[in-house]
Specification:
It is built from 33 helices and 33 strands. It is an alpha+beta fold and 1017 residues long. Helix 11 crosses helix 16 (455-478), helix 13 (401-415) runs parallel beside helix 17 and helix 30 (905-934) packs antiparallel against helix 31. The radius of gyration is 37 Å and the shape is elongated.
Length: 1017
């Protein structure tokens, strides 16, 4: 079946479909979803459980262990990570890569059931456990709401108003307010008045709790009606709390304000703070609906905010932290420029080497292929982003391969004096199936990443999808539209009698060189083998990495004070950083966080674990070029002014990796042994010149431990609970009830005035009510002494094993050389029996991604070999083709070393894609040799003439691919991949034009006959 014949005979249908592709492609492009980077599913849920008053070890044993045991019964769970700290447990549940985003809702339902089933096994006072399956939500529009002279309550009220309004905007999935302070009603009790009047603390607590409870008072029939009964007494205002009646020890009634001051405020000390450009702020994060157009949503949000501007209180401002739609618009514009540049380069090459008419024809088919690809992307819901647009650029050079072969065949036929339509049909009839096989093989070279189940595979999947779609469409258009258009538009003068088809100087030089290599075939192969060995050995000198850092006008700063730090001290350090940053000319904005980090506004960004000692910043600069210089200034400032902090100053990352580049985990039972191993590892990091060295367990913290006199306590009727409550009231304050105000529930916290709770030296004088003596006693009468001991402030576990993680980064940003320096020494650390070590960080992420990739490579390779065998119905031709594949290592190694580029994950994908490109070229060449031998040509002359006839299509295909990759060299994500393909394909293509003929002659024992007639050897 000749497809070109049908295309030419049904030319009206062919031209009509061409018009549909033009119009449909342009319309589809405007309707495609647009993102900066492709989305990948964060298959993690977080389970939190409060256990007030419990130590980290008590939380670990009584809460974390119970909940983890239930979670690990789920077969879908991959890893369970947890941290147990004073007052609560946080468990991260990671799901196996084999499950997709569609499976997650069902998995989260099962997780909730498992967690709920064990709530009865938790100790009194613990729980309930809360499952958060929105951990991976991305708030791509991120504002900071500030207002000088406004209270945080007023800011929060306006933020709530904005939230309700913005949730109605098309494309908005969720709006989250971050940094809001917990409003609290404080009842500050007078210790002296309570002692004087003999009012027990429990009386105040019980009265406050009972007074504001919502309880059912029942209903009563009144005639024909049934009326609900609702007694008064609920607090209508904060002042009402002060009017609450209490009974003193003598039995008289008095109001709460007689023994306490009631006031409204915020939780003190705060748990988390947010600031923008030095001012207190609230964060407003807006997420996009799944699959929605980020740019469209962003424009709609801007429009609605402009409409709401008249309702914005004077002085309140929305500061911009991150606006994904603007970033996406800029990123896609840059990539489209790269695509157009690559398109111009490819078409320019075609015009230069194929002639005006042929170049314009192939260029038109290329444009049509891209438009048809947009239609398919719309149908398969593939968004426009860095990977999908990069895939189009990667495929650009390959998209013309099929059209070049067809157009070149038509030109050669016309030069030989044949009818253009007949020539079109003949060349398609000869090459349509070999070209289809070669195209499918080129697609299969990208298949491993498309089939890889992990998050990196999901991130890069559109590379396979777009390349596969576009290449298959290029074949369809090459065997339908190209022969029809070629027959109509290609014009070339027939050869004159005696004129050689391949008689130009370049062809003559290539023929002489090829014949010399054929004559010295063993020497030729030995030289190539030597080059290959050199390339393989040289590859060991290439730096290795996973994903590069982003080129962005933003970066982050994170620091941790010693564990147990007071949050107000952390705030002071944050203010010092703010003051420095705001003085720098490169700084555009400074968003700071104390106690917890920013919302996830980038998919690749994850804030650190919350804690009073934790401070972080998102710093915006005027442009990406100024980011590096400001980062260096920050590092110098911190080393000079805040040497005790050792902050991490990092750019944002690309891809799926996050956190420190080098991490090692030690697992075992004894925290002291784990800390010893961590100390040894950090010492090795320091000796290797690493930076950002840290252990996640941090320092042990001090704990004040009152030693109770059990006998004396029992004599006066006191328990451990009574003493703990008295201490809580005296210092932190104790929750004594709830105050209801519309949709808000404010805790009522009882505490002593600041003057009485500011000094730890007053611990022995803390008063507690004795039920037996009916009076207050100082703690010194029931506590023997106050010890200060050390404990682990946090206990990390991984798959229910205590695990400490040490981490570091390379000072120059390249983790590969640093990892090489520290790997053997860390792995040689002696581990006690029952303890284990494993690498995390970039090594683990890269290994996991490459593991998913490598598992798919055998399947793709088997399919490629099968197609080759089917195409040739033989084994020797496929063997020749496969032996050419390693040649790409030579050029790839040379290029990466010459341009000092690391071999990252996308470079690995580029190396795999080279296999498809080389196989495609080799198929075209070997198929021509077989064809000429079947037609009765002398085998030796068939090899030489086939190499000459296919040299131009093969070189043109390689040249368009190589030069089409030039714009990607300047993109931070694709740079190493571009170098890999450009140098690998250049070297391998040139060598393929020699190696394939030499191997063919060697495998089939073909030699030139003495009188010019080739005879089988």
């Amino acid at each position: 079946m000749n497809i070109a014949t049908a295309s030419i005979r049904k030319s009206t249908v062919t031209w009509f479909i061409t018009g549909l592709l033009l119009v449909g492609g342009m319309l589809s492009y405007t309707g495609l979803g647009k993102l900066e980077d492709p989305a990948f599913t964060i298959k993690t849920a977080v389970v939190t459980t409060r256990y007030p008053g419990a130590s980290p070890e008590e939380v670990e044993n009584e809460v974390t262990e119970v909940v983890e045991s239930a979670i690990q019964q789920l077969g879908q769970v991959d890893i369970v990570r947890s941290l147990s700290q004073a007052g609560g447990s946080v468990i991260y549940v990671d799901i196996k890569d084999t499950f997709t985003a569609k499976d997650l809702p069902q998995i989260w339902d099962e997780l909730r059931r498992k967690v709920n089933d064990v709530q009865g096994n938790l100790p009194p006072g613990a729980g309930p456990s809360l499952v958060n399956d929105d951990y991976g939500d991305v708030f791509g529009v991120y504002f900071a709401l500030t207002g000088k002279g406004y209270t945080l309550r007023e800011l929060e009220n306006f933020a709530d108003f904005l939230r309700k309004e913005l949730l109605l905007v098309p494309g908005v999935a969720n709006v989250r307010i971050a940094g809001a302070q917990r409003e609290t009603v404080y009842v500050e009790l007078s210790r002296s008045r309570m002692t004087q009047l003999g009012i027990p603390l429990q009386t105040i607590f019980d009265t406050l709790k009972a007074q504001n409870l919502v309880v059912d008072a029942g209903s009563v029939q009144v005639g024909k009606e049934y009326l609900r009964i609702e007694p008064t007494g609920l607090f209508a205002t904060v002042e009402d709390i002060g009017d609450l009646f209490l009974r003193s020890g003598s039995g008289t009634l008095l109001r709460l304000r007689d023994v306490a001051t009631v006031k409204r405020g915020y939780l003190d000390p705060p748990r988390a703070l947010m600031r923008f450009n030095g001012e207190p702020a609230l964060g407003i994060g807006i997420s996009n609906v799944e699959g929605g157009n980020v740019i469209t949503m962003g424009e709609a949000v801007k429009k609605r905010l402009a409409e709401l501007l008249p309702q914005t209180p004077l002085g309140m401002e929305l500061g911009l932290i991150y606006y994904q739609s603007d970033t996406v618009k800029e990123a896609i514009a840059n990539f489209l420029v790269n695509l157009l540049e690559a398109l111009v380069i490819v078409i320019g090459l075609l015009l230069l080497f194929m002639g005006m008419r042929c170049g314009l024809l192939i260029g038109a088919v290329l444009l049509l292929t891209i438009l048809a690809t947009f239609i398919a992307m719309k149908g398969f819901r593939i968004d426009l982003h860095s990977i999908s647009l990069g895939a189009l650029i990667v495929a650009l050079g390959m998209l013309v391969d099929n059209a070049i072969v067809i157009a070149d065949g038509v030109l050669v036929g016309i030069q030989k004096g044949r009818d253009p339509f007949r020539s079109s049909e003949d060349i398609v009839g000869q090459t349509q199936w070999p070209l289809l096989g070669a195209t499918i093989i080129a697609v299969l070279a990208f298949a491993p990443i498309g089939l890889s189940p992990d998050s990196t595979g999901e991130y890069c999947r559109s590379l396979f999808q777009v390349v596969g779609i576009s290449l298959l469409l290029s074949w369809i258009l090459a065997v339908t539209i190209t022969p029809l258009a070629g027959a109509h538009f290609l014009k070339v003068a027939p050869m004159r009698e005696g004129e050689e088809l391949y008689g130009s100087l370049l062809y003559r030089l290539y023929r002489k060189f090829l014949e010399a290599c054929l004559a010295k075939r063993l020497l030729t192969l030995a030289v190539l083998a030597g080059l290959l060995v050199t390339g393989v050995l040289g590859f060991n000198m290439v730096d290795k990495s996973f994903f590069p850092s982003a080129s962005s006008p933003m970066f982050t700063i994170e620091f941790r004070r010693p564990k147990g730090a007071f949050i107000n001290e952390t705030l002071e350090d944050v203010r010092k950083f703010e003051a420095f940053l705001r003085e720098q000319p490169e700084t555009k904005s400074v968003t700071s966080f104390v106690g917890e980090g920013a919302l996830r506004f980038l998919l690749t960004f994850t804030a650190g674990d919350p804690g009073d000692e934790y401070g972080s910043f998102v710093v915006g600069t005027e442009n990406a070029e100024e980011t590096d210089s400001l980062m260096k200034k920050v590092e110098e400032f911190a080393a000079r002014e805040l040497p005790y902090l050792d902050p991490r100053v990092r750019p944002f990352g690309k891809g799926t990796g996050s956190g420190a580049k080098i991490q090692v985990r030690f697992s075992g039972e004894d925290p002291l042994v784990l800390r010893g191993l961590a100390d040894q590892a950090t010492a090795l990091y320091r000796a290797a010149g690493a930076v950002n060295i840290r252990s996640d367990w941090g320092e042990r913290v001090k704990v004040i431990r009152p030693v109770l006199d059990e006998v004396r306590a029992r004599q006066v009727g006191l328990t451990r609970k009574d003493i703990a409550e008295a201490l809580e009231l005296s210092f932190s304050g104790a929750t004594a009830g709830l105050y209801r105000e519309k949709d808000k529930l404010l805790p009522i916290v009882a505490r002593f005035p600041e003057a009485e709770r500011a000094d730890a030296g007053t611990l022995p004088e803390v008063q507690t009510w004795s039920p037996s003596l009916q009076r207050y006693l100082p703690l010194s009468q029931v506590v023997r002494r106050f010890d200060t001991v050390a404990e682990d402030s946090v206990i990390y576990r991984r798959n229910r094993m205590r695990t400490v993680t040490t981490e570091c980064d390379a000072a120059d940003g390249l983790a590969g050389p640093l990892f090489t320096r520290v790997r053997s020494s860390v792995e040689n650390l002696p581990l006690p029996l029952g303890y284990s070590m494993e690498w995390g960080g970039e090594y683990e992420s890269s290994g996991k991604a490459q593991g998913g990739l490598l598992r798919m490579i055998p399947l793709a390779f088997a399919a490629i070999v099968l197609i080759l065998v089917v195409l040739f119905n033989a084994l020797r031709q496929p063997a020749i083709i496969l032996l050419c594949l390693p040649l790409s290592v030579i050029g790839m190694t040379a290029g990466l070393l010459l341009l000092r580029k690391p071999f990252d994950f996308l470079a690995l994908l580029g190396f795999l894609s080279l296999a498809g490109m080389l196989i495609k070229n080799a198929i075209v060449l070997i198929d021509q040799i077989d064809l000429e031998i079947r037609e009765g040509r002398d085998p030796y002359e068939a090899i030489v003439d086939s190499a000459l006839s296919r040299a131009r299509p093969v070189l043109m295909a390689a040249l368009t691919t190589v030069l089409g990759m030039v714009p990607l060299y300047f993109d931070v994500l694709f740079s190493s991949m571009a170098v890999t393909i450009m140098f690998g394909l250049t070297f391998a293509t040139g060598l393929t034009l020699v190696v394939v003929p030499v191997l063919y002659a060697l495998f089939f024992r073909i030699h030139p006959a003495p009188e010019g007639e080739g005879v089988p050897g």
